[in-house]
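To whoever picks this up:

The nightly regression suite flagged MFS transporter as changed. Nothing in the input moved, so I suspect the structure step. Input below, exactly as stored in the fixture:
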Amino acid sequence: MASFSGVQRLVISIAVLASFVTFLDGTVVNVALPAISRELGGGITTQQWVVDAYLITLSALILLAGSVSDAYGRVLVMRVGLIAFGIASIAVAAAPDPLVLIIARAAQGAAGALLVPSSLALITATMRSDVQARAIGVWTAFTTAAQLVGPLMGGLFVDYLSWRFVFLINVLPIALNLILLSRLKLAEKPSGRRVDWVSGALCAIGLGAVVFALIEQPNYGWGSPAIWMPGIAGAALFAWFLLRQRGSASPLMPPWLFRVRDFGWGNLATFFVYAALSLNGFVVGVYLQQGAGLSATAAGLASLPMTILMILVSSRAGAWAGRFGPRIFMTVGPAIMAVGALMLLLVAEDFDYWWQVLPAMIVTGLGLALTVAPLTAAILGAIDQEHSGIASAVNNAVSRVAGLLVVAMLSTIVGGMLDLDGFHSAAWVTAALLVLGAIVSWIGIRRNPAEVEDAVTPTSAPSPAAPAA
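Regenerated output under the current build:
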Protein backbone atom coordinates (compact mmCIF):
# COMPACT_ATOMS: atom_id res chain seq x y z
CA MET A 1 0.00 0.00 0.00
CA ALA A 2 2.95 2.26 -0.64
CA SER A 3 0.98 4.51 -3.00
CA PHE A 4 -1.59 5.44 -0.30
CA SER A 5 -1.23 8.18 2.31
CA GLY A 6 -0.88 7.32 5.99
CA VAL A 7 -4.54 7.97 6.77
CA GLN A 8 -5.64 6.02 3.71
CA ARG A 9 -3.50 3.03 4.71
CA LEU A 10 -5.04 3.14 8.19
CA VAL A 11 -8.57 3.28 6.75
CA ILE A 12 -7.87 0.35 4.42
CA SER A 13 -6.35 -1.71 7.24
CA ILE A 14 -9.38 -1.09 9.45
CA ALA A 15 -11.82 -1.89 6.64
CA VAL A 16 -9.96 -5.09 5.73
CA LEU A 17 -9.79 -6.37 9.31
CA ALA A 18 -13.44 -5.55 10.03
CA SER A 19 -14.69 -7.35 6.93
CA PHE A 20 -12.14 -10.14 7.30
CA VAL A 21 -13.72 -11.48 10.49
CA THR A 22 -17.21 -11.72 8.98
CA PHE A 23 -16.10 -13.27 5.70
CA LEU A 24 -13.80 -15.70 7.50
CA ASP A 25 -16.49 -16.79 9.93
CA GLY A 26 -18.94 -17.42 7.12
CA THR A 27 -16.68 -20.03 5.53
CA VAL A 28 -14.46 -21.42 8.28
CA VAL A 29 -17.43 -23.08 9.96
CA ASN A 30 -18.22 -25.50 7.12
CA VAL A 31 -15.44 -27.97 7.82
CA ALA A 32 -16.26 -27.91 11.56
CA LEU A 33 -19.85 -29.09 11.17
CA PRO A 34 -19.25 -32.87 11.55
CA ALA A 35 -17.21 -32.31 14.71
CA ILE A 36 -19.89 -30.02 16.16
CA SER A 37 -22.67 -32.56 15.64
CA ARG A 38 -20.52 -35.36 17.07
CA GLU A 39 -19.95 -33.43 20.29
CA LEU A 40 -23.24 -31.58 20.76
CA GLY A 41 -25.63 -33.90 18.92
CA GLY A 42 -28.54 -32.93 16.70
CA GLY A 43 -27.18 -34.41 13.48
CA ILE A 44 -27.87 -32.66 10.20
CA THR A 45 -30.42 -30.29 11.75
CA THR A 46 -27.81 -28.80 14.05
CA GLN A 47 -25.36 -28.53 11.16
CA GLN A 48 -27.87 -26.68 8.99
CA TRP A 49 -28.78 -24.15 11.63
CA VAL A 50 -25.18 -23.49 12.66
CA VAL A 51 -24.71 -22.14 9.14
CA ASP A 52 -28.17 -20.73 8.48
CA ALA A 53 -28.65 -18.84 11.76
CA TYR A 54 -25.57 -16.76 10.90
CA LEU A 55 -26.50 -16.16 7.27
CA ILE A 56 -30.14 -15.30 7.90
CA THR A 57 -29.43 -12.56 10.46
CA LEU A 58 -26.48 -11.26 8.45
CA SER A 59 -28.52 -11.03 5.24
CA ALA A 60 -31.72 -9.75 6.83
CA LEU A 61 -30.14 -7.01 8.95
CA ILE A 62 -27.46 -5.71 6.62
CA LEU A 63 -29.76 -3.12 5.01
CA LEU A 64 -30.77 -1.75 8.39
CA ALA A 65 -27.11 -1.68 9.41
CA GLY A 66 -26.21 0.35 6.32
CA SER A 67 -28.78 2.98 7.21
CA VAL A 68 -27.59 3.03 10.83
CA SER A 69 -24.01 3.45 9.59
CA ASP A 70 -24.95 6.52 7.56
CA ALA A 71 -27.07 7.98 10.36
CA TYR A 72 -24.71 7.55 13.32
CA GLY A 73 -21.26 7.31 11.76
CA ARG A 74 -19.21 4.45 10.37
CA VAL A 75 -16.57 4.43 13.12
CA LEU A 76 -19.11 4.20 15.96
CA VAL A 77 -21.13 1.47 14.24
CA MET A 78 -17.99 -0.48 13.42
CA ARG A 79 -16.77 -0.29 17.02
CA VAL A 80 -20.10 -1.59 18.33
CA GLY A 81 -20.12 -4.35 15.72
CA LEU A 82 -16.59 -5.48 16.55
CA ILE A 83 -17.27 -5.72 20.28
CA ALA A 84 -20.56 -7.57 19.72
CA PHE A 85 -18.94 -9.97 17.25
CA GLY A 86 -16.15 -10.76 19.66
CA ILE A 87 -18.56 -11.49 22.52
CA ALA A 88 -20.75 -13.66 20.26
CA SER A 89 -17.69 -15.58 19.01
CA ILE A 90 -16.67 -16.44 22.57
CA ALA A 91 -20.27 -17.52 23.31
CA VAL A 92 -20.24 -19.84 20.28
CA ALA A 93 -16.93 -21.39 21.34
CA ALA A 94 -18.25 -22.00 24.85
CA ALA A 95 -21.71 -23.27 23.80
CA PRO A 96 -22.77 -26.29 25.90
CA ASP A 97 -25.63 -27.40 23.64
CA PRO A 98 -27.01 -26.83 20.14
CA LEU A 99 -29.60 -24.21 21.20
CA VAL A 100 -27.02 -21.90 22.79
CA LEU A 101 -24.74 -22.41 19.80
CA ILE A 102 -27.45 -21.49 17.30
CA ILE A 103 -28.54 -18.40 19.26
CA ALA A 104 -24.92 -17.24 19.50
CA ARG A 105 -24.45 -17.81 15.76
CA ALA A 106 -27.49 -15.64 15.06
CA ALA A 107 -25.95 -12.94 17.28
CA GLN A 108 -22.72 -13.23 15.27
CA GLY A 109 -24.64 -12.64 12.06
CA ALA A 110 -26.35 -9.55 13.50
CA ALA A 111 -23.00 -8.13 14.60
CA GLY A 112 -21.49 -8.97 11.22
CA ALA A 113 -24.25 -6.97 9.56
CA LEU A 114 -22.89 -3.89 11.36
CA LEU A 115 -19.35 -4.50 10.14
CA VAL A 116 -19.52 -5.11 6.41
CA PRO A 117 -21.31 -1.96 5.13
CA SER A 118 -19.56 0.37 7.59
CA SER A 119 -16.10 -1.00 6.70
CA LEU A 120 -16.42 -0.60 2.95
CA ALA A 121 -18.23 2.73 3.41
CA LEU A 122 -15.12 4.03 5.18
CA ILE A 123 -13.20 3.56 1.93
CA THR A 124 -15.87 5.00 -0.35
CA ALA A 125 -16.40 8.00 1.97
CA THR A 126 -12.72 8.95 2.25
CA MET A 127 -11.37 8.12 -1.23
CA ARG A 128 -12.60 8.78 -4.73
CA SER A 129 -11.72 8.01 -8.36
CA ASP A 130 -8.76 5.73 -9.13
CA VAL A 131 -7.50 5.84 -5.53
CA GLN A 132 -10.83 4.44 -4.37
CA ALA A 133 -10.70 1.73 -7.04
CA ARG A 134 -7.21 0.66 -5.96
CA ALA A 135 -8.25 0.67 -2.30
CA ILE A 136 -11.28 -1.47 -3.07
CA GLY A 137 -8.95 -3.82 -4.94
CA VAL A 138 -6.80 -4.23 -1.80
CA TRP A 139 -9.92 -4.68 0.36
CA THR A 140 -11.29 -7.25 -2.08
CA ALA A 141 -8.04 -9.23 -2.20
CA PHE A 142 -7.85 -9.72 1.56
CA THR A 143 -11.56 -10.14 2.33
CA THR A 144 -12.06 -12.62 -0.49
CA ALA A 145 -8.93 -14.42 0.64
CA ALA A 146 -10.63 -14.77 4.04
CA GLN A 147 -13.51 -16.58 2.37
CA LEU A 148 -11.19 -18.83 0.42
CA VAL A 149 -8.65 -19.62 3.15
CA GLY A 150 -11.38 -20.17 5.76
CA PRO A 151 -11.92 -23.88 5.00
CA LEU A 152 -8.17 -24.54 5.29
CA MET A 153 -7.91 -22.82 8.67
CA GLY A 154 -11.05 -24.56 9.88
CA GLY A 155 -9.72 -27.94 8.77
CA LEU A 156 -6.44 -27.45 10.63
CA PHE A 157 -8.18 -26.46 13.85
CA VAL A 158 -10.66 -29.32 13.63
CA ASP A 159 -8.02 -31.93 12.82
CA TYR A 160 -5.41 -30.85 15.37
CA LEU A 161 -7.21 -28.89 18.13
CA SER A 162 -10.99 -28.55 18.53
CA TRP A 163 -13.89 -27.12 16.55
CA ARG A 164 -14.31 -24.55 19.33
CA PHE A 165 -11.05 -22.85 18.36
CA VAL A 166 -12.52 -22.25 14.89
CA PHE A 167 -14.73 -19.55 16.38
CA LEU A 168 -11.94 -17.97 18.43
CA ILE A 169 -9.89 -17.16 15.32
CA ASN A 170 -11.62 -13.76 15.17
CA VAL A 171 -10.69 -12.55 18.66
CA LEU A 172 -7.17 -11.38 17.76
CA PRO A 173 -8.07 -9.39 14.60
CA ILE A 174 -11.01 -7.84 16.46
CA ALA A 175 -8.73 -6.66 19.28
CA LEU A 176 -6.21 -5.31 16.77
CA ASN A 177 -8.90 -3.46 14.86
CA LEU A 178 -10.25 -1.81 18.01
CA ILE A 179 -6.74 -0.47 18.65
CA LEU A 180 -6.47 0.83 15.07
CA LEU A 181 -9.88 2.48 15.35
CA SER A 182 -8.72 4.40 18.39
CA ARG A 183 -5.92 5.87 16.25
CA LEU A 184 -8.20 6.93 13.39
CA LYS A 185 -9.01 10.63 13.65
CA LEU A 186 -11.72 10.91 11.04
CA ALA A 187 -13.85 14.05 10.94
CA GLU A 188 -17.11 12.19 10.43
CA LYS A 189 -20.36 14.09 10.23
CA PRO A 190 -23.16 11.61 10.85
CA SER A 191 -26.24 12.61 8.86
CA GLY A 192 -28.58 12.23 11.81
CA ARG A 193 -31.28 11.00 9.45
CA ARG A 194 -34.12 9.01 10.97
CA VAL A 195 -33.64 5.26 10.74
CA ASP A 196 -36.70 3.39 9.48
CA TRP A 197 -36.80 0.65 12.11
CA VAL A 198 -40.19 -0.62 10.90
CA SER A 199 -38.76 -1.30 7.44
CA GLY A 200 -35.82 -3.02 9.07
CA ALA A 201 -38.16 -5.35 10.95
CA LEU A 202 -40.21 -6.08 7.82
CA CYS A 203 -37.09 -6.91 5.84
CA ALA A 204 -35.56 -9.07 8.57
CA ILE A 205 -38.69 -11.06 9.41
CA GLY A 206 -39.86 -11.35 5.80
CA LEU A 207 -36.53 -12.49 4.40
CA GLY A 208 -35.91 -14.77 7.35
CA ALA A 209 -39.27 -16.50 6.93
CA VAL A 210 -38.79 -17.02 3.18
CA VAL A 211 -35.31 -18.44 3.68
CA PHE A 212 -36.61 -20.72 6.45
CA ALA A 213 -39.24 -22.11 4.07
CA LEU A 214 -36.72 -22.69 1.27
CA ILE A 215 -34.22 -24.41 3.53
CA GLU A 216 -36.65 -26.60 5.46
CA GLN A 217 -39.00 -27.61 2.65
CA PRO A 218 -36.96 -30.73 1.73
CA ASN A 219 -37.59 -31.94 5.31
CA TYR A 220 -41.33 -31.18 5.49
CA GLY A 221 -42.54 -30.68 1.90
CA TRP A 222 -44.36 -27.69 0.40
CA GLY A 223 -47.71 -29.06 1.58
CA SER A 224 -46.78 -28.70 5.25
CA PRO A 225 -48.24 -25.62 7.05
CA ALA A 226 -44.84 -25.30 8.73
CA ILE A 227 -43.45 -24.44 5.27
CA TRP A 228 -46.12 -22.68 3.21
CA MET A 229 -47.39 -20.49 6.03
CA PRO A 230 -44.05 -18.83 6.86
CA GLY A 231 -43.21 -18.79 3.15
CA ILE A 232 -46.33 -16.85 2.19
CA ALA A 233 -46.18 -14.62 5.27
CA GLY A 234 -42.50 -13.87 4.66
CA ALA A 235 -43.09 -13.01 1.01
CA ALA A 236 -45.96 -10.70 1.99
CA LEU A 237 -43.86 -8.94 4.62
CA PHE A 238 -40.95 -8.52 2.21
CA ALA A 239 -43.32 -7.13 -0.44
CA TRP A 240 -44.62 -4.69 2.17
CA PHE A 241 -41.02 -3.70 2.88
CA LEU A 242 -40.42 -2.97 -0.82
CA LEU A 243 -43.62 -0.92 -1.12
CA ARG A 244 -42.77 1.00 2.03
CA GLN A 245 -39.43 2.08 0.52
CA ARG A 246 -41.23 4.15 -2.11
CA GLY A 247 -42.88 6.42 0.46
CA SER A 248 -40.40 6.32 3.34
CA ALA A 249 -38.61 9.53 4.28
CA SER A 250 -35.49 7.48 5.15
CA PRO A 251 -35.68 4.29 3.08
CA LEU A 252 -33.30 1.45 3.87
CA MET A 253 -33.15 0.57 0.17
CA PRO A 254 -33.90 3.77 -1.77
CA PRO A 255 -35.58 2.82 -5.06
CA TRP A 256 -33.69 5.56 -6.91
CA LEU A 257 -30.43 3.68 -6.31
CA PHE A 258 -31.46 1.05 -8.84
CA ARG A 259 -32.16 3.73 -11.44
CA VAL A 260 -28.47 4.63 -11.36
CA ARG A 261 -27.40 2.49 -14.29
CA ASP A 262 -24.16 0.98 -12.98
CA PHE A 263 -25.65 0.36 -9.55
CA GLY A 264 -28.78 -1.37 -10.84
CA TRP A 265 -27.10 -3.52 -13.48
CA GLY A 266 -24.08 -4.11 -11.24
CA ASN A 267 -26.29 -5.56 -8.51
CA LEU A 268 -27.98 -7.84 -11.02
CA ALA A 269 -24.54 -9.06 -12.07
CA THR A 270 -23.68 -9.45 -8.38
CA PHE A 271 -26.70 -11.70 -7.88
CA PHE A 272 -25.67 -14.12 -10.63
CA VAL A 273 -21.93 -14.11 -9.85
CA TYR A 274 -22.30 -14.58 -6.09
CA ALA A 275 -24.98 -17.22 -6.48
CA ALA A 276 -22.48 -19.12 -8.62
CA LEU A 277 -19.64 -18.59 -6.13
CA SER A 278 -21.77 -19.78 -3.21
CA LEU A 279 -22.93 -22.88 -5.08
CA ASN A 280 -19.43 -23.72 -6.28
CA GLY A 281 -17.81 -23.21 -2.87
CA PHE A 282 -20.39 -25.30 -1.04
CA VAL A 283 -20.46 -28.18 -3.51
CA VAL A 284 -16.69 -28.41 -4.01
CA GLY A 285 -16.00 -28.26 -0.28
CA VAL A 286 -18.54 -30.96 0.58
CA TYR A 287 -17.86 -33.28 -2.37
CA LEU A 288 -14.09 -33.31 -1.85
CA GLN A 289 -14.72 -34.71 1.63
CA GLN A 290 -17.77 -36.93 1.12
CA GLY A 291 -17.24 -38.01 -2.48
CA ALA A 292 -13.47 -37.91 -2.98
CA GLY A 293 -12.61 -38.87 0.59
CA LEU A 294 -10.25 -35.99 1.41
CA SER A 295 -9.69 -34.84 4.98
CA ALA A 296 -10.99 -31.48 6.20
CA THR A 297 -7.52 -29.95 5.93
CA ALA A 298 -6.91 -31.37 2.44
CA ALA A 299 -10.28 -30.09 1.27
CA GLY A 300 -9.37 -26.65 2.57
CA LEU A 301 -6.01 -26.77 0.79
CA ALA A 302 -7.81 -27.43 -2.49
CA SER A 303 -8.89 -23.78 -2.71
CA LEU A 304 -5.42 -22.36 -1.99
CA PRO A 305 -4.63 -21.57 -5.67
CA MET A 306 -7.69 -19.31 -5.80
CA THR A 307 -6.52 -17.52 -2.66
CA ILE A 308 -3.06 -16.88 -4.09
CA LEU A 309 -4.46 -15.54 -7.36
CA MET A 310 -6.88 -13.24 -5.50
CA ILE A 311 -4.04 -11.74 -3.45
CA LEU A 312 -1.74 -11.33 -6.46
CA VAL A 313 -4.20 -10.00 -9.03
CA SER A 314 -7.18 -8.38 -7.28
CA SER A 315 -5.55 -5.08 -6.31
CA ARG A 316 -4.16 -4.71 -9.84
CA ALA A 317 -7.59 -5.43 -11.29
CA GLY A 318 -9.04 -2.67 -9.12
CA ALA A 319 -6.43 -0.23 -10.45
CA TRP A 320 -7.08 -1.34 -14.04
CA ALA A 321 -10.80 -0.83 -13.54
CA GLY A 322 -10.15 2.70 -12.29
CA ARG A 323 -8.16 3.44 -15.45
CA PHE A 324 -10.03 1.57 -18.17
CA GLY A 325 -13.48 1.17 -16.66
CA PRO A 326 -14.99 -1.94 -15.05
CA ARG A 327 -17.15 -3.18 -17.93
CA ILE A 328 -14.55 -5.31 -19.71
CA PHE A 329 -13.36 -6.94 -16.47
CA MET A 330 -16.91 -7.63 -15.27
CA THR A 331 -17.58 -9.36 -18.59
CA VAL A 332 -14.35 -11.30 -19.11
CA GLY A 333 -13.95 -12.29 -15.45
CA PRO A 334 -17.22 -14.23 -15.07
CA ALA A 335 -16.74 -15.78 -18.52
CA ILE A 336 -13.35 -17.14 -17.41
CA MET A 337 -14.92 -18.42 -14.19
CA ALA A 338 -17.59 -20.19 -16.24
CA VAL A 339 -14.83 -22.04 -18.09
CA GLY A 340 -13.32 -23.00 -14.75
CA ALA A 341 -16.68 -24.33 -13.53
CA LEU A 342 -17.08 -26.46 -16.65
CA MET A 343 -13.59 -27.86 -16.14
CA LEU A 344 -14.93 -29.51 -12.97
CA LEU A 345 -16.82 -31.87 -15.28
CA LEU A 346 -13.45 -33.66 -15.56
CA VAL A 347 -13.91 -34.95 -12.01
CA ALA A 348 -14.51 -38.72 -12.21
CA GLU A 349 -14.93 -41.70 -9.91
CA ASP A 350 -11.19 -42.29 -10.22
CA PHE A 351 -10.40 -39.02 -8.45
CA ASP A 352 -7.20 -37.07 -9.11
CA TYR A 353 -6.97 -33.57 -7.65
CA TRP A 354 -3.98 -32.45 -9.73
CA TRP A 355 -5.61 -33.09 -13.12
CA GLN A 356 -9.31 -32.85 -12.34
CA VAL A 357 -9.61 -30.01 -9.79
CA LEU A 358 -6.43 -27.90 -9.71
CA PRO A 359 -6.75 -26.56 -13.30
CA ALA A 360 -10.34 -25.53 -12.57
CA MET A 361 -9.25 -23.78 -9.35
CA ILE A 362 -6.58 -21.81 -11.21
CA VAL A 363 -8.89 -20.71 -14.02
CA THR A 364 -11.72 -19.86 -11.64
CA GLY A 365 -9.34 -17.94 -9.35
CA LEU A 366 -8.06 -15.84 -12.24
CA GLY A 367 -11.59 -14.96 -13.34
CA LEU A 368 -12.61 -14.18 -9.77
CA ALA A 369 -9.62 -11.89 -9.26
CA LEU A 370 -10.52 -9.97 -12.43
CA THR A 371 -14.17 -9.65 -11.42
CA VAL A 372 -14.66 -8.76 -7.79
CA ALA A 373 -12.78 -5.46 -7.37
CA PRO A 374 -14.08 -3.93 -10.64
CA LEU A 375 -17.60 -5.08 -9.75
CA THR A 376 -17.45 -3.43 -6.33
CA ALA A 377 -15.84 -0.28 -7.71
CA ALA A 378 -18.47 0.06 -10.46
CA ILE A 379 -21.39 -0.30 -8.06
CA LEU A 380 -20.16 1.91 -5.23
CA GLY A 381 -18.38 4.39 -7.50
CA ALA A 382 -21.76 5.24 -9.03
CA ILE A 383 -23.22 6.42 -5.70
CA ASP A 384 -22.39 9.57 -3.75
CA GLN A 385 -20.48 9.66 -0.47
CA GLU A 386 -23.52 10.46 1.67
CA HIS A 387 -25.28 7.26 0.62
CA SER A 388 -22.19 5.01 0.55
CA GLY A 389 -23.29 3.05 3.62
CA ILE A 390 -26.69 2.21 2.16
CA ALA A 391 -25.18 1.41 -1.24
CA SER A 392 -22.64 -0.95 0.31
CA ALA A 393 -25.32 -2.58 2.44
CA VAL A 394 -27.63 -3.15 -0.54
CA ASN A 395 -24.83 -4.70 -2.58
CA ASN A 396 -23.81 -6.96 0.28
CA ALA A 397 -27.43 -7.95 0.89
CA VAL A 398 -27.84 -8.89 -2.78
CA SER A 399 -24.74 -11.11 -2.68
CA ARG A 400 -25.80 -12.80 0.58
CA VAL A 401 -29.37 -13.39 -0.55
CA ALA A 402 -28.07 -14.86 -3.82
CA GLY A 403 -25.99 -17.35 -1.85
CA LEU A 404 -28.84 -18.16 0.53
CA LEU A 405 -31.27 -18.88 -2.28
CA VAL A 406 -28.99 -21.04 -4.37
CA VAL A 407 -27.84 -23.11 -1.38
CA ALA A 408 -31.45 -23.45 -0.22
CA MET A 409 -32.25 -24.92 -3.65
CA LEU A 410 -29.23 -27.23 -3.57
CA SER A 411 -31.29 -30.42 -3.35
CA THR A 412 -33.11 -29.54 -6.58
CA ILE A 413 -29.89 -28.56 -8.35
CA VAL A 414 -28.01 -31.78 -7.54
CA GLY A 415 -31.00 -34.08 -7.95
CA GLY A 416 -31.40 -34.92 -4.29
CA MET A 417 -27.90 -36.29 -3.66
CA LEU A 418 -24.43 -34.79 -3.93
CA ASP A 419 -22.88 -37.75 -5.71
CA LEU A 420 -20.77 -37.44 -8.86
CA ASP A 421 -23.79 -36.80 -11.07
CA GLY A 422 -25.05 -34.15 -8.63
CA PHE A 423 -21.60 -32.58 -8.58
CA HIS A 424 -21.60 -32.33 -12.38
CA SER A 425 -25.13 -30.86 -12.37
CA ALA A 426 -23.96 -28.18 -9.95
CA ALA A 427 -21.00 -27.40 -12.25
CA TRP A 428 -23.39 -26.80 -15.18
CA VAL A 429 -25.64 -24.53 -13.10
CA THR A 430 -22.61 -22.63 -11.78
CA ALA A 431 -21.33 -22.03 -15.31
CA ALA A 432 -24.79 -20.88 -16.48
CA LEU A 433 -25.06 -18.37 -13.63
CA LEU A 434 -21.62 -16.97 -14.43
CA VAL A 435 -22.44 -16.60 -18.13
CA LEU A 436 -25.56 -14.65 -17.13
CA GLY A 437 -23.37 -12.43 -14.95
CA ALA A 438 -21.05 -11.74 -17.88
CA ILE A 439 -23.94 -10.92 -20.24
CA VAL A 440 -25.59 -8.60 -17.74
CA SER A 441 -22.30 -6.76 -17.16
CA TRP A 442 -21.66 -6.26 -20.88
CA ILE A 443 -25.18 -4.96 -21.47
CA GLY A 444 -25.54 -2.75 -18.42
CA ILE A 445 -22.22 -1.38 -17.19
CA ARG A 446 -21.11 1.87 -18.79
CA ARG A 447 -19.30 4.26 -16.47
CA ASN A 448 -15.60 4.58 -15.82
CA PRO A 449 -15.25 5.79 -12.21
CA ALA A 450 -12.16 7.83 -13.12
CA GLU A 451 -14.17 9.81 -15.69
CA VAL A 452 -17.31 10.53 -13.70
CA GLU A 453 -15.98 11.87 -10.41
CA ASP A 454 -18.26 14.88 -10.66
CA ALA A 455 -21.28 12.64 -11.18
CA VAL A 456 -20.89 10.94 -7.83
CA THR A 457 -20.09 13.85 -5.52
CA PRO A 458 -22.64 14.76 -2.87
CA THR A 459 -23.52 18.04 -4.59
CA SER A 460 -24.55 16.36 -7.82
CA ALA A 461 -25.76 13.04 -6.48
CA PRO A 462 -29.17 11.81 -7.53
CA SER A 463 -31.95 12.06 -5.03
CA PRO A 464 -35.19 10.18 -4.67
CA ALA A 465 -36.92 13.05 -6.44
CA ALA A 466 -34.40 13.21 -9.29
CA PRO A 467 -32.85 9.81 -9.96
CA ALA A 468 -30.05 9.38 -12.41
CA ALA A 469 -30.58 7.35 -15.54
